[in-house]
Write a structure and sequence with these properties.
The chain has 140 residues and is α+β, with helices and mostly antiparallel strands. It has a single domain, classed as Beta Polymerase, domain 2 (2-Layer Sandwich), CATH 3.30.460. The protein is built from 5 helices and 4 strands. A 4-stranded mixed sheet has the order 3-2-1-4, with helices on both faces. Helix 1 packs antiparallel against helix 3. The longest helix is centred in the C-terminal third of the chain and has 31 residues. The radius of gyration is 18 Å and the shape is globular.
Length: 140
């Protein structure tokens, strides 16, 4: 089976489509299997968007529909302003920044997510150590 990724033209289409529909977008990341060059024929395209305003349901539907039609694939959209830390960290660190390279707000967001993720891992370490010491998740 041949592994797939997106061409430069397809990446450009993602950016122009999102900017044309959503407007005030600070950053667009391609993440997941297509960003890693590990896509399959049935892989969707994972896109994370950082926008000044939240992405409501109707905007998300419009973006998925237009991008899906343009790229002939299912689209998975992530609103970075409403995403749990772990997912945002994955999109930012494993993804490809398609738009927003020179925006200081994007660099600030990336640093913030990395700090929040590090803090989350420290908190989890204590919880996991407690579970191991007790030998149970739910009590002694």
């Amino acid at each position: 089976m041949t592994k797939k990724s997106l061409s430069k033209a397809q990446r450009s289409k993602i950016v122009t489509t999102i900017l044309g529909i959503a407007g005030d977008v600070e950053a667009i990341y391609l993440y997941g299997s297509m960003a890693r060059g590990e896509g399959r024929d049935d892989s969707d395209i994972d896109i994370a968007i950082m926008r000044l305003a939240p992405i409501d349901a109707s905007l998300a539907l419009e973006l998925r529909t237009e991008l899906g039609a343009a790229l002939s694939r299912d689209i998975d959209l992530l609103d970075l302003r409403r995403t749990p830390t772990e997912m945002a960290f994955q999109a930012v660190t494993d993804g490809i920044l398609l738009h927003g390279e020179s925006d200081p707000a994007v660099a600030l967001y990336e640093n913030s997510i990395m700090s929040m993720y590090a803090a989350l891992q420290l908190e989890r370490r204590e919880i996991i150590a407690d579970i191991v010491a007790r030998g149970s998740v739910y009590g002694s």
